[in-house]
Amino acid sequence: MNAFYLDKMSKIIQLLDDNGDGVLTLDDFYAAADRVALAFGHAHGSSEHHLIRDAYTTIWDKTYAPMDSDRDNVLTFDELVEAHQDTLYDPGIGYERFRPLAQAFLALADGDGDGIISREEFVRTMRHAFRLPEDEAHEAFGSLDETGGGRLTYDQIHRAASGFFCTDDPDAYGAGLFGPVVPVRA
Ligand SMILES: [Ca+2]
Ligand SMILES: [Ca+2]
Ligand SMILES: [Ca+2]
């Protein structure tokens, strides 16, 4: 696990840390759910909004809460990195643990349900689910769309998520899934 991997994890924390306190809590996930529901045209309090909130609660409970090793309901950078190293850092079995999380975001992103993630669907999801700036979201899409066809299959997104979360290879497919990774750690 190299510096590039730690830089990627820094970016993930930064993108998920909605209230900017440097750590992840369930509140960050609620805020993301509210933002995503609004971005996808679902009114606050609508049944779709509740479904998205439930999905985010499940993501927290199943994926992130177990990483909180001291059980104080606050997920720190060190806890996140340690958990990734222990459970996800392997493109095979590690990714199988991660796959349901990616699948949940695919279901959200694929607004028209055609099994393809268009550039527009990708950019909208990355902007609102992960607060990625629009230009970085376009850059990320371009890095994944090898043929330039303007569409990604679910399989490509899974490959990208595996390359991002389960390897520390800066040249892996998916290294640019969340836009540019800026070196922030020695
Ligand atoms: Ca936070
Ligand atoms: Ca903790
Ligand atoms: Ca679609």
CATH architecture: Orthogonal Bundle
Number of helices: 8
Low-confidence stretches: none
* Broad shape: globular
Broad structural category: mainly alpha
- The count of β-strands is 2
Taken together, the total number of domains comes to 1
Major sheet attributes: 2 strands, antiparallel
Polypeptide structure, described:
- The protein contains eight helices and two strands; from the N terminus they run αααααβααβα.
- It has a single domain (3-165), classed as Recoverin, domain 1.
- It is mainly α and 186 residues long.
- The protein has helices spanning 3-16, 26-39, 47-64, 77-88, 93-109, 119-130, 134-144, 154-165; strands at 116-118, 151-153.
- The longest helix has 18 residues, at 47-64.
- Helix 6 crosses helix 7.
- 59% of the residues lie in helices and 3% in strands.
- One calcium ion is lined by residues 17, 19, 21, 23-25, 28.
- Residues 110, 112, 114, 116-118, 121 line the site of one calcium ion.
